[in-house]
Structure formats: structure tokens, C-alpha cells
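Narrative of activities, Objective 1.

The group set out to show that a structural description can be obtained from nothing but a protein's sequence at a throughput compatible with the screening campaign. Below is one input-output pair from the validation batch, recorded exactly as produced.
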Amino acid sequence: MQMNIGQFLTRRAFLSPQVEAMVEPAAAGRRIDFRELNARCNRVAHALRGAGAKHGDRVALLLMNGAEFIESFFAVAKIGAVNVPLNWRLVADELEFILKDSGATVLLYDQNFAPVVAELQRRGDKTDLRSWVQVGGTVPAFAQDYQAWMGAMPADEPGLAGADDDLLFIMYTSGTTGLPKGVMHSHRTVMWSAFTVTATADFHYKDRFLTALPLFHVGALMPSLCCVYTGSTQVILKAFDPKLAWELIRDEKITTTLLVPAMLQFMQATYDRSMHDASTLRWVLCGAAPVPVTLIKAYEEIGVEVHQLYGLTESCGPGCLIMGEDALTRVGSTGRAYFYTDVRVVDSEGNDCAPGDPGEIILRGPHNMVGYWNRPDATAQTLRDGWLHTGDIGTMDADGFVTIRDRMKDMLISGGENIYPAEVENMLLGHPAVGDAAVIGLASPKWGEVPLAVVVVKKGATLTEAELLAWCKGKLATFKLPKAAVVVAEIPRNPSGKILKRVLREQFKDSVRAPE
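Output recorded for this entry:
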């Protein structure tokens, strides 16, 4: 039997037509059951085919969380095209690169992003886009109105195209070389991700899941697909709001959710026992960065279990998960491998480390990525002998519990967003007064960590921190921009020229503070 992920929605609509598929507080409390969601999805699928999208073509989604994202994602799947979810925090130059690199021919975008889309459209043949569809607002002449575009189409099944090893989505992650890499996942890898997640985590039919992370992240996309697979209701936040999250947990009787540590911290700060009722919430999955032990214990006092997880875009999400019975007795661990996932901790020679000894975490499973789009070199470096080399350092105890220790790569995680220093460093080196630059993580009580720019000023030039930070604005997504800067005489490097970031971290760990 061939599997097209679009069938997840088709079959769920057949089995559970009147079960609530989603609730959207930001859309006047719109409620959609699985029958209606599938019908809307089918209309989008027919409209996409009418726009010329066919098997293998790339369709870009620059959409906020909501029904339009989910129905469009499944519609692209049904016609055998390839989804390219776009991070809506990126600026025009970053989006242009991804659109051009992926070869996307259709762009579905939210009215909130009309200015940046207009800028992209003015650039003409810088991308391969030929069809533009806007959700909401006043639609420009070069685009079509989403509701009219899909509303004129029939709601019958469009006829599936593509399955199994055909690509389902390309999700871009920032690259260590400064250029984003497109992580490719097929219908098969996504199917196995759903299988291993639902076989491991405590998902139930008719659960009520709070979708609070952006759906362009695999950490939100895969739980969303699992909700369709299991017949659960998604209560979707268009954008995260900690107070609203507590209200929805209470009013919508939320049973499960996935958040990042920064979100948990924001919610803890707004929690009011006299107003908020979390009694229906069985657990909160938390990933993207190590979860502070104090935070896990604070939620224990509220009566909520925090289950730390570990995974990557390259693994389509799953890596390790701590189960409820271990979340408190093994605080700090990210748990054991998912059901259909193998995890090892290895030394530089590829040998398994002894229990407790640090090494690189590597993953194996049918949900691992196909590879990086148009990047066979990076693919060969990351996927070796069937194992996904994560670049993360961890330890494994005798019982198979993994604890994340550090990152081999210099990636920063700020509020759940991945930031690769090389990309920011390349931008800094574009300043006429900057002769050398390095970016390290600066501890932040609010975001976990934020970028700190360490720069060398060219001889004869002058540059203040305020001038540099002001110059950076608009050149990269806001979350990637340095939040502080220091000027040094020299960037420490090893004999091969690599920046000694551990030296910089030690140098500035106490002398520079992140802004509030």
C-alpha cells in the first residue's frame, strides 16, 4: 500500500467527520470539524492544480498558524507537490534565497506579510514564482484572493499523486556556512515520524492539543500532523501569548502541548492559581533547548508534568523523550530513544562511549531526512552509514537515558529559534569599519541566550556599540541580530584559523550582560 500523507486527512475525515479538527481563537473562535477541513483542503488542491502546480513542484507557505496553513499543507501533499514552509521572521533577502534555492513556483502568503511579498515581487526574476495567493486583506493586482481562489473549486477528492519516497516538504535551517540548508523529508519519513511519536508519547484520540509554536518549525508541524493522524483537536494560537495560553488551557480543556523553555518561563511568570485551571493538562512536551531543572520543578508545583524531548529538523522531530514516570526522578535527562528510533553516543572514532562519557549523539530511524536539497556534500557529512550525525554532545547512562551536554556546532538557541553564528558574522563583516568578527551566545534570563557580537575595528576607523547594532537592523531576521556588541583588539583563533569561541565565552561570561 502506497502512503501519501494527504491520506491522513482524507481518512480522518471519513472516520471522524464530526470531531473538531481545530479551534482558532484569533479567527473569531472559528471551529472546523474534520469533514470541513478535508473539504477545504480539497478545494485548495484543485486550485493549486489550476495554478499549474504538479507532482514535484515546490509550493511555498508564508502563512501564520491557522486553518489556511494546515489545509494548504495537506493539499500540496495530495497533489504530490512539495511544501516549502517559510519562517515569517525572515527578511526579504533571506526569503529570496530560499525561494530561489528551492525553485518554488507558487507562494501562499498571509496579509501580514504583504509588504515583504511586494518587495519580492518587485525583484522580478530573482525567484521562480509565477503564482501569488494572499490570505486576507486587500489583495494586490499581482496576486489572487485565497478565499475566492479556493472557494470556486469543487470539494471532491482531487486524486492523489506522489507517495512514499516522493518529497513532501523542504524545511530550511540556517547553515554553519551562513547559507540555509533545505532539509528534505518524504511521505515515508514523515509517516514514520508520526508512527514513532504516537507509539512513544501519550497521545489519545480526541486529545486537545495547544499549537503554540510556529507551524514552519518541525516542532509544531509534526504534532499538528499527529493530531490529524490520531483524531485530536488542535487549538491554534496565531502567535504565542502566555496569558492567552493559560486561558485556552482552562477554557478549551487542553490535554497536551509542546513548548520551548522560553515559553514555559513566560507562562510561569503569568500563572495565577486563582484564575487558571490546568487540571486537564496531562503533560507538556518541551524541547529546542535543555529545560532548566528549576522550571520542571516549578511546573510540578502547578501540577503539570514537563517531558523534555530531543530532536532535530533532520530527524523530522523524534530523537529522545523522557516519559512521565521518569520526568521527575531523572530531571535533566532528555530521556530514551523513541519507539522506532535508535540513539547512540559515540567518540571521534565512531565507537560507543562508556556510560556517562560524553560523545556525539547520532540517530538512526526511518524518519531521518532524505538529505539536504541540492547539497550532496552536506548530506554525506551528516548521514553516514545510516546514522544521522547531530553534532550535539551528550552522555548516555546504563539504562539508555540521554543527557544533552553541549553543542559541537556553535549554534545558538534563542527562544527556541536556531541561530548559526557564521551567518551573523558574515553580516557583521559587511560593515565598512569591521575588520574581524565573532558571534557567541550571551546568557539571557528571558530568551536562554542571545547573540553577542565581538568585533575588531579596522585601523583608523571608529565604531560604537550603538552604531553597530543600529546598522544591523533589517539585514537579518530580528531574532538573529546581536543584542550586544564589544570591540576587541584581536579575535582568538587556533593555528588553522578557526575562532576559539570557548575563549571568548570565558572572557565575556561575566563582563557583558544581555539587555532586558
